[in-house]
């Protein structure tokens, strides 16, 4: 499975961005998809996950601000990010996990999100 993330950029505090993750080379509909991020000087952290049944889970620091979704027909996952704050500045990575696995099997190349104050 190959993953291609896009949609990052520079946005002001309080602004919005939508990240996309296009998948190819596998059965997208059975994959659990997710987003992780790595902020400058910090360790990588999990952001959100969407299961093959579209069940969603979020890290506490993005609840109510970010929405993860998927389009199985288009083999694409999204992360709508609203009310962005400078602390959201990071490289965002999309991931995919095969059924039965506990951690991601595949990682995209990352897309940079910068939130200016």
Structure in words:
The chain is mainly β and 117 residues long. The protein is built from no helices and 11 strands. It has strands spanning 2-6, 9-12, 17-24, 32-38, 45-50, 56-58, 66-71, 76-81, 90-97, 106-107, 111-116. Strands 2, 4, 5, 6, 9, 10 and 11 form a 7-stranded mixed β-sheet that branches. The mean pLDDT is 97.
Task: Describe the SSE topology.
Blueprint: E1 2-6, E2 9-12, E3 17-24, E4 32-38, E5 45-50, E6 56-58, E7 66-71, E8 76-81, E9 90-97, E10 106-107, E11 111-116
Parallel strand pairs: 2-11
Antiparallel strand pairs: 1-3, 3-8, 4-5, 4-9, 5-6, 7-8, 9-10, 9-11
Quick tags:
117 residues; mainly beta; 0% helix
The fraction of residues assigned to DSSP E strands is: over 45%
Write down the Rg: 13 Å
Distance between the termini: 37 Å
User: Segments where pLDDT lies below 50 for 5+ residues?
Assistant: none
- Broad shape: globular
Biggest sheet features? 7 strands, mixed
Query: What is the averaged pLDDT score?
Result: 97
Look at the helices and sheets and give the structural class: mainly beta
H-E order: EEEEEEEEEEE
Could you state the oligomeric state of the chains shown? single chain
Count of individual helical segments: 0
* Number of extended strands: 11
Q: What helical percentage do the residues reach?
A: under 10%
